[in-house]
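Notes from the 1:1 (GR / supervisor)

We went over the backlog. Supervisor wanted to see one worked example end to end before approving the batch request, so GR pasted a single chain during the call. The sequence is below; no edits were made to it. Supervisor asked that the structure be written out right there so they could see what the output format looks like.
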Amino acid sequence: SRLGTTAFLAANDIVSSPKRYAVIAFTFFLCMSLLIMLSNVTASLKSGKLLKYFGMADCHAVTDIGDEAMKFMAEDGHERVEKYLEDMEQTLAENGMPAECMTEYYIYTMIRYGEYESKTAILQGTGTTMDMYEYLEGTPPQNSGEIAVTTLLAKKLGAEIGDTVTLSYPTGETAEFIITALYQSMVNQGISVKVHTDCDINYIAASGSPGTQIKFTDGPDDKEVLSRIEKIKELYPKFSSVKTAGETVKDNTGVGDAIDAVKKMSAVLTVILAALITVLMERSFIAKEQAEIAL
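Structure output shown during the call:
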């Protein structure tokens, strides 16, 4: 044989008793599959790519402006938000951080289609365009008379793309919209609608905002993003927090660290389990060989 003595004997043992070695290989496969699965889940729950499921467009950083959000909950709140975002973009640009600033505001209200009615959350972005969001079906709303609804809400109402629904605002006003797209979101347990950025809504009934999003337009790397976040904290000391998109997702899901701890514990148990199975299998091999030699 061209193989060395050790390699030849090892290969001969495997070929002679494939079932015994298959047990070891299968055990290692299961253990590694568990670790890979937990690693992927942990990485996903800390990834900024999940922002889309919280009703937000893609960005590099998210700021929490704290009680400052209250001043935008007025009849002219939308216009105030636009001015606030323009000022922030100018300030960031003057400090070497060219960026697009955007935000979302929530308004809880009722939606009706035919004889079906449901409570829902209205999401309206400012500083965004409707193509910044991800949709499962249809086309993004093109004007203030069109909306996108979650698949869960559409199923609850029995509505489809092309149907006309009625929103009843907390102020007593009502408005009709045509559904043009379906999407998925974790906001309000998956029951929400996304209206066009130009839709005229009275923000006096707004419930809040997830924060101001900052998307740098010069393509900084992760290290530079972290550096800029520290600079933003200095420029806006009144902000409650400034976090990366990934940190925002982690805080919103609230389970990333827990699953990470489970992953680490599983890694330790996997090593112990694999070692025990290997030792036990080797002992059984040796015992069998000793019996054969004795014969």
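Supervisor's comment: Residues 256-294 form the longest helix (39 residues).
Batch request approved.
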